[in-house]
Amino acid sequence: MSDPLNARATLTAGGKTYAYYRLAALGNRLALPLDRLPFTVKVLIENVLRNAGTEPFTVDDTVRLASWKPGQAASQAREFPFLPARVILQDFTGVPAVVDLASMRSAMARVGGDPSRINPLVPVDLVIDHSVQVDMFGTSGAFAFNVQKEYERNRERYTLLRWAQQAFHNFRVVPPGTGIVHQVNLEYLGKVVWTDARGGVTVAYPDTLVGTDSHTTMINGLGILAWGVGGIEAEAAMLGQPIYMLTPEVVGFRLIGEPPEGVTATDLVLTVAQILRKTGVVDKFVEFFGASLKHLSLPDRATIGNMSPEFGSTATMFPIDDETLRYMRLTGRGQQVALVEAYAKAQGLFRSDDGPDPEFDQVVTLDLSTLEPSLAGPRRPQDRVALPGIGASFHTAFDERISGASGGAGGGVAVAAKLRSVDVKMDGARAPLSDASVVIAAITSCTNTSNPAVMVAAGLLAKKAVEHGLTVPATVKTSLAPGSMVVTSYLERAGLMTYLETLRFHLVGYGCTTCIGNSGPLPDPVAQAVQENDLVVAAVLSGNRNFEGRIHPQVRASYLASPPLVVAFALAGTVDIDLTTQPIGRGRNGMPVFLRDIWPTSKEIQETVARSLGPEMFEERYRDVFHGDDTWRTLPVPAGGLYAWDRNSTYEQEPPFFTNLSMDPPPVRDIKGGRVLAVLGDSITTDHISPAGSIGAESPAGRYLMEHGVAKVDFNSYGSRRGNHEVLVRGTFANVRLRNALGAGKEGGWTTYLPTGEVMSIYDAAMRYQADGTPLIVIGGKEYGSGSSRDWAAKGPKLLGVRASIAESFERIHRTNLVQMGVLPLQFKPGENTQSLGLTGREVFDIEGIEKGITPGQTVTVRARGEGGPSVTFQATVRIDSGIEVEYYRHGGVLPFVLRRLMTHK
Predict the structure, then answer these.
(1) Which of 143, 214, 452, 735 has the fewest CB atoms within 10 Å distance of its CB?
(2) Residue 322 has what DSSP assignment?
(3) 665-688+754-904: which CATH number, 2.60.120.260, 3.20.19.10, 3.40.50.2300, 2.60.120.10?
(4) Buried b vs exposed e over 814-840: b needs ≥16 C-beta within 10 Å?
């Protein structure tokens, strides 16, 4: 084992001896005080220290990172490698990752190389959790029915994953119907301290990982440094390619005070999201500290970590402390506690109330006593709304549309618009449905279902509501989709499942449902009424994402809420209400019932959790977590190390990224005669660029599927079809709520084919441009590419022929994905954008200064020649931020870079 800095030492825990790389020894050797460094920085230092002397880690990397000082990271940014202990995948992103690895094996075989060299070098876990849809709800048979439909729809995909299990080493799969990837990671997979054998010695080091889902950061709550990456970056990490980073900026988030009665972890995280999005933490790490951390349970911390992408940080760390150890014992990992405690204390990674606070680049403070019941919406997770203001927020967002649709003046209204209402026939009875009606109420997503306090609160609220005689309107589609089987275990033990089911919150699946867009169809009468009357209806869900078009294509308003508030708004049936002053409904005696009448107290919640939750539940549920049900175990397992591609499959096809791959990358060229495919606004998410939800029959992807014999009922979703690039390239920019300035005022995936002025789908226009040999450009605003760590948001544009994306600012993961697919990210200079420069998108673009050689952060010249008018010339910053990214771009992406290395290095 390499140890150029003589930092290796030993420690004993649980009767066993471990080697570890001692940070204090490094600090003493370099005369550097490391004790006041952020927890985040210490973990990164340990990573380069432990690997120093093995390519590409150097002693200089270690020394530079160990010299970290607050306030200097931005001005003295240096690139360093980071090698995570493991990689985690979910199936929406995991299937295309497996497809890429399988196609790399095929490419290796074509050039006479050894395909087995394409194999994960670090442990990889894939949790199948994103494919269950809420087809059936409100009945005890919903779970079994939805799982059966999941297998019917996804048999091809799951067969591929069974092949991967036997074809790759270090690759495990958690079967369908088990839980959500982040909750399984939090409750079972996470070790806090990882170990492996090196040269006959067991080495202990921090458990770190990257995952192909942006909410991988949920595990930060357990003291594990992790973040979301695109599938292409994860694949490179699997193959042993380090992740290259710049010297980190760390924002400290200090907690003071004590939370008031009646607020939940959801209220806390929505407040944190609002604060940190305003602070600006993109490309930065956030770390929580302060004595008031003691008021946050570990699930509370995980809830905050989960929503890191919503406020833009790379990760949101919580140091290891006594609460970490308590949670590990609770979740059946008591045997790991001795090592975690001994290692964390030996490394200075254990937090205590009497210890010194770390020093940070910037500090933000939140007084917990100021928290209030909140939701977020109706379109973005950072748009927190206090509970009394939900109705006003709805009117502010949609009154103009409602007034216009009903023949009003439009252009904004001075008072709340009159909501339109119709009657629909549900279960043989007439039920009212109007603008602002709640049509989806979903207790879903790892964000909140991992937290027993808020789940028990939802059950207690349901109990009190039933006892008061309240019911949920028949027009509300209700669902309960927890992130692990443990949730239903403790709800059943507490006697609360009965009350949730009385309100039709039956179990629909253990997986990521409504939050990812797998909400399933609305009941036909509701769907028809919304469509025919253009009603603006709402969803309320306990998730982390509510971007336009994500939850359901017919639902324009979506609010994130705690599980008890999801139940409350289901009972109310509308978001045009102030639940702090107006009754939620009328009880059996006809008297009004208010939210305060049924809201559980903190004491009730704590006592219920204490008596209904124990380690034996976690031990039982996770004992056979990799085995699956009979259907999973009887799926066919294709043999062989090379995947047998089926040309007739509409789910998996060998992508074109590695076909005809030359041993040397072609030279990089300037972009000449480029045309703009889309001019987009601020906060364009990866859902806008590469939607995960339903596929429209008239869309290019829908037409493709029907041409290949797939009936509309069997379309499944864009997310489930990510193993087939033919579907995904047709779905790129196909979000039904996309607004493209070149789309002639049409909402959705439309653009103008500029040479002729024809309006057509973005896909069809891109194919016309490709036939012309015309390079394409996409223009965006602020926060371009926010949201999910969706590699297809970069792969899709690449296949459309997009050579560059120009934006005011990029979200971290999407910028990285673009570079790693060989698409050039360019950033307008400060104060400039399409409006200030007078760009319409109809110009012809030249981008000059690339082929002379790219350096990180260089400036290039962009010339936009107008239609018969003057040219606009401006400077843009190349958002290739490091030397290794230059290499990735030069090779046309990270995977061609890695494959060429494997082909040439025996």
Answers:
(1) 143
(2) H
(3) 3.20.19.10
(4) bbbbbbbbbbbbbbbeeeebbeeeebb
